[in-house]
Amino acid sequence: MLFAPSEEHEAVRRRIRELAEKEFRPRAAAYDESGEFPHENLKLLVEGGFIGMNLPEDYGGAGLDTLSHTICVEEIARCCAATAVAFEVHNTLHSETIAHFGTEEQKRIYLTALAAGERIGAFCLTEPGAGSDAGAVKTTAKLSPDGGTYVIEGQKCFITNGGVADLYLVFAMTDPSKGSKGLTCFIVEKGMPGLSFGKPENKMGIRASHTTDVFLDQVPVPAANRLGNEGDGFKIAMSALDAGRIGIAAQAIGIAQAAYEASVIYAKERVQFGKPIAELQAIQWMIADMATDIAAARLLLYRAAELYEQPGRHTAEIAMAKLKCAEVAMRHTVKAVQIHGGYGYMREYGVERLMRDAKITEIYEGTSEIMRVIIAASALR
Ligand SMILES: Cc1cc2nc3c(=O)[nH]c(=O)nc-3n(C[C@H](O)[C@H](O)[C@H](O)COP(=O)(O)OP(=O)(O)OC[C@H]3O[C@@H](n4cnc5c(N)ncnc54)[C@H](O)[C@@H]3O)c2cc1C
Description:
By secondary structure, the protein is an alpha+beta fold. The protein is built from eleven helices and ten strands.
């Protein structure tokens, strides 16, 4: 066993790295500072064929495998973590979910536009009272007497691509008495009456990715926009999160890799006590731990990406990858700031941004505590 991506996968990496290095890295600090959504980067990802790369060829996607997509998220995050999450949520949480659960008509109408990047997607599960406990959703969807329309009422919060996206997968209770078994998923279009958005949140990190409230005030949604059957929502959300968590793990590894590379360069350049700090054992050990942890976490990530394509669910193995990659990113971005000393604390060196960006990977698409709950449940089954 080689545990290495194939030549085809490395070719994908070279292509996305070239784009991310040339276009995303130089703009990342300015996007972080302004909090402006990186429309320009998304446009380049559309033009490069990366948007929709994981979607079926029959609907205009490139039909590439999960490992190729994982490598792309990793390389985008290595240069701009905010762009990586906007990309990841569109391609996996939103579009791939329609690819898996949509009817032929839904795929023809929505998936082709998503694969072409003509429409951007978002995923709306979280609510003010339903975070880790996704089954506690209060948003409701009531079917009209003629069976033609659902009316959705409620509020979602912390929605990535909120306001920017054209299409929203909204999870709402069609039968609140059944708890999580009463949850149903709908494709809601921007422009439908009663759908509105809050102001972008002022965040610690991934500042250029837009995160907003989504308000649903008696939004009439055609019954044809229901994804799956009534009551399938929880199953659909958990399946979507399997794919999404691989993406977040990849985002984390990209951030960690950037912190490692910056630390190696700085350690060789910075002279104290008459020699580069790279010659100090204290620094060497931090670099050695970074290199080792990133390599180990990346193996778990690539294993998860490959397992995802195998039959059955691999939720625990995916949770392991997300947990490990997020914690490695957090630990080693802090170390990168340490290696940079006082300069690391300054915005212009960029490693403090990596530290701020890393934190979210331990929180969204399931916190590290929830990842441990999933892994323990599988281990103790
Ligand atoms: C920037 C950003 C973008 C996001 N994007 C999206 C999006 O696009 N779509 C979407 O639907 N959601 C999104 N989210 C929401 C995100 O997934 C939730 O914030 C996350 O799942 C945690 O939920 P919570 O914030 O309500 O925390 P809570 O669930 O309230 O957790 C608070 C603390 O309690 C711990 N905890 C809770 N339950 C348990 C338990 N059973 N065992 C052990 N510990 C527990 C948690 O780990 C955490 O430490 C986003 C969030 C952020 C910050």
